[in-house]
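User: Fold this; tokens only.

Assistant: Input:
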Amino acid sequence: MAVLDHLVYSTPDLAGTVDELRERGVDLVPGGPHDGLGTRNFIGPLGGSAYLEVVGPDPDQPAPARPRPFRIDELTVPTLVTWAVATTDIDTTVARARAAGHDAGVPFGMARRRPDGVLISWRIAFPVTDWDGLAPVLIDWGDAPHPSGGLPGGTRLESLRATHPDPGGVSAALAVVGAELAVTAGEPGLVAELSTPAGRVVLR
């Protein structure tokens, strides 16, 4: 069974969104830049090994030649765009999903340098049909230190749910990668409820 690795909260204004979330009680620390993609992130705890990734444009990088990932260039407000599940064998997971009719993408390597100078790398696969962000991204950290290690405490994920016009189709795509998510009928979207020292925070 794949487990929740992180939630992806995209924003066109990284600094502003980080300030707002901190004011609401979400403790975030700098993650690092994604060189060549024009993005950087901040991360915060969700409990256990899960974390929240807030990602947006990096003002210290030139505009990339292609659109930034996670819909950043098309957003006008911060949005919970997708989620990622961890696997210890991404190639096998992708092959199993493809055999069952879900193209989970082609794994490739990524890396970023943490503020302390440590370079962390991972392999990731973006689904070809992502069901409006509800089919999860697959991630395999290999031997790299996990980003959740050493994060401050205080924020926990209380629930994660989704709505979609075709909940059965989404659930089928989830099942073949071993992911679990409550999906009901409605407009496409993810909703996460967090508990923080300052109270409840809902991201959507």
